[in-house]
Structure formats: C-alpha cells, structure tokens
Design brief:
The chain is mostly beta strands. Helices cover 5% and strands 56% of the residues. It has a 27-stranded antiparallel sheet that branches. The protein has a two-stranded antiparallel sheet with strand order 13-14. A two-stranded antiparallel ribbon has the order 18-19.
Length: 643
C-alpha cells in the first residue's frame, strides 16, 4: 500500500491511497482512492472557497482457473466534482469527460441452461455533472433451447429449428449528480423494476433459395412507481403590467407516485432474404472482370396498439385558446429507460446490400488481382399499412469504401423522400409519383473522410519498400568493467584487452530527419454536408481537423514528446496542444511539461529508485485551467510552495 499526499501553504491539500493485491491462481487487483480539497480566495468577500472532490478506482480480476462456473471481477471508476480535471494537467485528464464502471458476479448453473449475474453499473459526464447508477442489476438468462428437436434423427424438419429464449432482469436505477451522490435525495430518487422477455423463432427454406425466419416476442415490465406531470393553475410567471392579465404559466412539475403497474409489449413478424451473384469476365485488356454481390431482404412486422393504456395528458394553460395539452408516458424515466408507447404497426421494410469488386491485370506481377470498389452500398425503406397517411418511409442510401491503399476510409449517407415538400420545408401528403417523377426526391447527403497514417508508412510509400528502423542515434558502445563481457576486441592470456581492428570498430549510426519522426502519427478528418432546404441547395463542411502526435529522440538521453497537436480548420484554432521534454540523468530523471492552451506547466526532477522516490523536486503552475473549472474559478495559482 502506498499513501501519498499534497499540502499547500495556501490551504489546498489532497490524499491518495493506492494498494495492489494478488492471490496466486486466485485473483488480483488494485484499489486507488483519491481526495482533493482545492482552496482558493473568494474575489467577492475575500474569504476562502473550498472545492472538495473524490475519486474511486477499483479493478479486480479473477484467474480463469480459480473456479469452473463462478466469476467475480470488473472495474469501478467514479469521480466527483471533476476530480481528474482539478488535480491533473494532461490531455487524457482534461479531454476525458465520460467515465463508467462495470463490476459483476456471474454464476453458471451446471446441468441447466440458466445463468445468473449481478452487477454494478455506472456512467457519468463531467461536463453535465449527471451520473447514472445501477445497483444492483440482477439477471437470469436462459440459453436458447430447441424444445421440439428430435434426438438421433437423420432427417431435419422445420420444427427442429424452433428456438425458445427467456430472460428476466431486476434493476435498481438512479439518476443523480456528482455533487449530490452521497445524499438522502439520491436514495429517494431510486427507481425499481423487473422485466421479463421471451422469444420464439425458427427458420426454413422457401423455393430452395430463400431463407425465411418467422419470430414472435413478448416482454412485460413490472414497476413500483409511475411518472406524473402536474399543472398548477396558480403558477403564473408572466402578467400584463397594465391590465394584470395572465400571459404565461410555469411548465408542469415532474414527480413520481408509488403505484404498482405493468407495461406489456408484443411483436411478431417474418423476414425473407437471399443472396445473388453477378459476374462478368474478360480475357484481354487492363480491366478483366467485375463481380456484383446482391443481398436483398424483406421483412413483415406486426405490433398491436398500446398507446391508450400507458399515455396520460396534462394541461399547460388555463385559457382554452392557449392550452396545448401535453401527452406523456406514465413509465418515463423508468429503471429500463422510457418505455415507449406505440400505435398499431403493420408494415413491410425492404433493403438490398451490394458489394462490388473488380479484377484488373497487374503488369508488375503478371497476374490478375482483385480490388473491392465498395464494401457495401445499402438501400433501405419501408411501408406501413396501418398508418392513416405518409405510409411510405424515406429511402436511405449508405455505403463505405477504402481509398489510397487503405489509408483513408470514406463513408456516405443520403436520404430521399417519396413525398414532396412545400416552400417552408414541410412535408406534404403528395407523392412524387403523382407529380410525374420516377425517383424519390433528394433531401440530404453527408460524407466523411477519415485518414490515419504514420511517418514510417509515408516513407514506405515513397521508397516503395518496408523499412524496420531502430533508432541507434547517439548510441555508444558500452564498455563493461567485468571480465569476459567486452563486446568488441580480443582478450589476451593476461586478461588485457586489445583494441579492435579498424574494420571491426562499431561507429554511432547517424540518424536522418525521417527517422526522427518515425514514431509520429497523423490523423485527418473531413465531414461535409449537402442538403436541400426550402427549395435551395446548401453545402457546408461540418468538421475539418488534423492531429499530430509522437516522440522525438533528440539525443541518447533527451526525448521530446508531443502528446497532442490538433488544428481545427473550421474554427481556425488549435485543440489542446501538449508538449513534454524528458532527460535521463542515469540514477535521476527530469521532465518538463507544458500545455499552452490553458497555461499550465510543471517541472520535475527525482530519483528513479522507488525506495528513494521521496527525493524529488516538483514545481508547477497547476489548477490554472479555466476551461475545465466552474465559472468564476479563473484565478491562476502559482503553487511554488509545495511541501
């Protein structure tokens, strides 16, 4: 166990506890607890402002052979009040805003298809301060079974493929903030429920080439609380200053009432799919062939209406002319999320996925090679028989491919509407076919280029061959003081070493500029949009940025690390650049870090040995980050007085 702390003469202090444990052939893990109290001056009254934050990090792993059917393990990563952003100054701590935990216990039941699991789950966003915690989350799952499968049968019937699955889940869930986590209000806001799911499915062949897969599923959720919106007729927020008439009301108040209820949902459908190949070959010329793989699919789904059972209404105004009745689900914000009510659905969805490959003749290798032009191009849409209007859905066209010898991925998505739009960009009930058009109307198109490459890969592309570079710059021949360990030269009978021959002498290898940047990586992203809005064609670039990171071995003992240099071409600004310099001082080490965008830096020199790690000097300008602190916490602090 290691316990470390920080004490500043101006009142700020912190404490960290780090312990590791291990049982051979059993389990291992570590626990890291952190506490920080950042004290600063209040600019308004001259008093002291205290900002306390905590960090809990637990990691536990069970050995694979510790137990045949029981397992305990996972990780817990919880921070409160932006602990990492206040304590550390590095890109990972500053730019990471999402944290999550998953710690579970599982038990496989031998001789049965069932498996039990209990887990703790957590997720939080340090920017919004919102935390979602699930404790406990217990599940009982049954592996898929085939109740009608015949034993020792040489022939197969469609009933043999009938599959049955079942699962049940008990969940306690609460949504809170990182500043009210350890309060009584968190206990009052806990939502509890239990959910059951069952599904029955099978598959068989139709007309030899078509795969048919009918299915039916049913789920039922038990809850002990219902969501309620209440409108207060006296909640006037705006009145006319002259007449005194009411002009506006506060929105309805959210609350939960204790009432046992159940939410039920049923789905049934069937899907059909097949696969067709189209190939054309030529014996001469550069272009030798093309292959088109088409995978069409069509599905039918039926879902009964359950909207009237689980929807409620609330008024928003006492005046009839201004009252807009609001509908909401009584099972909003349940432990399983908002249980969506739906109207009756009976529709067909269709789609086709295409893969296109080409064959070309390579003069260099004197053979035919295959290149994939598109990994997939998909067209999808649907039609709802139960809808009273707008039965056709929009048609989407998506695809992706790889260009520049695999360096760049290109993804695109386009949407087409079977219904026309008016001048205010509102969809109408008039189809494009009634206007004499053949194809649906174009609405929008989005594309994305993403590229990732290293300087070493660039050099390979330029030189045309792979190079394995080991940086030997500034390396010197070590001369051992122990007999018999000399790397060069020869040893005489009297144990004296003769100088090596000129042609055998190793000389330091000079490092080229390209080898210096061998470990650098470049990533580039470009997103663009093209849409048709209010009868006009609009195009713009939504994102365009480049990122460079890597390390440079300046000398044998000097190293420069560029943690992050990103430039946003759209906003014309750098995104959190971060630099560090390190010097190897044999038994000591020294480093200097600098983040210019938020004005923090640090200097450290200390002994390498863990036993003498207290021999160090740590100087830094910390907690001057105004980008990741609360409003008003913008006074730089120069912590020169570290004890």
């Amino acid at each position: 166990m290691r316990i470390t702390g920080d004490i500043y003469t101006r009142g700020s202090h912190g404490l960290r506890v780090n312990t590791n444990y291990k049982k051979r052939y059993g389990y291992e893990g570590n626990v890291l607890l952190g506490y920080s109290n950042n004290v600063r001056d209040n600019d308004k009254d001259g008093g002291k402002l205290s900002q306390k934050s905590f960090s809990i990090n637990i990691s536990h792993r069970q050995h694979s052979k510790a137990h045949p059917y029981r397992n305990l393990g996972g990780s817990v990563n919880i921070t409160t009040n932006r602990y990492n952003q206040r304590v550390f100054e590095n890109p990972n701590a500053a730019l990471t805003s999402q944290y999550s935990s998953n710690f579970s216990y599982s038990h496989d039941m031998p001789g049965t298809p069932f498996r039990f699991a209990a887990e703790f789950r957590h997720s939080q966003n340090t920017q919004t301060r919102i935390m979602d915690i699930t404790l406990p989350n217990m599940t009982l799952r049954m592996n898929t079974i085939f109740p009608f499968k015949r034993k020792n049968s040489t022939t197969e019937k469609w009933t043999d493929n009938i599959a049955l699955s079942y699962s049940s889940e008990f969940r306690n869930f609460v949504k809170t903030t990182d500043t009210t986590l350890f309060s009584m209000q968190t206990l009052k806001d806990i939502q509890t429920g239990m959910q059951h799911k069952a599904a029955l499915s099978t598959n068989f062949r139709l007309f030899k080439y078509i795969n048919a897969s009918p299915n039916i599923s049913y789920d039922e959720t038990w809850l002990i609380k219902k969501y309620q919106l209440t409108f207060n007729k006296d909640s006037v927020i705006i009145r006319d200053t002259i007449s005194g008439d009411t002009l506006g009301f506060k929105p309805p108040v959210e609350s939960f009432i204790s009432e046992l209820g159940a939410f039920r949902n049923l789905n049934a459908g069937i899907s059909l799919n097949t696969q067709r190949f189209f190939t054309r070959n030529w014996n001469k010329g550069f272009f030798r062939g093309i292959r088109h793989v088409a995978k069409p699919n069509i599905s039918f789904v039926y879902k009964p209406e359950n909207k009237e059972k689980y929807l409620a209404t609330v008024d928003t105004d006492t005046r009839n002319n201004f009252n807009k009745t609001r509908e909401y689900s009584v099972y909003t914000n349940s432990p399983f999320g908002t249980l969506q009510c739906s109207e009756k659905q009976m529709g067909i969805s269709y789609g086709i996925t295409n893969i296109i490959e080409a064959k070309y003749w390579s003069k260099k290798d004197t053979t035919a090679k295959i290149i994939r032009l598109f990994d997939n191009i998909s067209i999808n849409g649907g039609y709802n028989f139960a809808a009273d209007s707008l039965k056709w859905s929009s048609v989407s066209l998506t695809g992706n491919t790889v260009v520049l010898k695999g360096l760049t991925n290109f993804y695109f998505r386009s949407t087409f509407s079977p219904y026309s739009y008016d001048n205010k960009d509102i969809i109408t009930k008039q189809t494009v076919w009634s206007q004499g058009k053949i194809l649906p109307e174009f609405r929008n198109f989005s594309g994305q280029f993403s590229t990732g490459i290293s300087f070493g890969r660039i050099r390979e592309m330029i030189t045309g061959k792979k190079q394995t570079v080991q940086n030997k710059a500034f390396q010197q021949n070590p001369i051992s003081t122990e007999p018999g360990l000399q790397k060069s030269g020869s040893t005489t009978p009297d144990n004296t070493t003769t100088p090596p021959a000129d042609d055998e002498e190793e000389k330091p290898k000079e490092t080229s500029l390209s080898e210096w940047f061998e470990n650098f990586n470049i990533s580039h992203a470009l997103n663009f949009e093209f849409s048709k809005t209010k009868g006009r064609d609009t195009s713009y670039i939504s994102n365009h940025s480049v990122n460079v990171s890597g390390s440079i071995p300046l000398t044998k003992n000097w190293n420069m690390n560029i943690g992050n240099i990103a430039y946003d071409f759209k906003n014309k600004s750098f995104v959190y650049p971060y630099f560090s310099f390190a010097r190897d001082l044999h038994c000591w080490q020294m480093n200097f870090t600098w983040a210019p965008s938020n004005g923090v830096y640090s200097f450290f020199i200390g002994v390498k040995s863990s036993a003498l790690s207290f021999l160090k000097y740590d100087y830094g300008q910390r907690n001057a980050n105004t980008l990741f602190t609360d409003k008003g916490d913008n006074q730089p602090r120069n912590n020169k007085d570290i004890i």
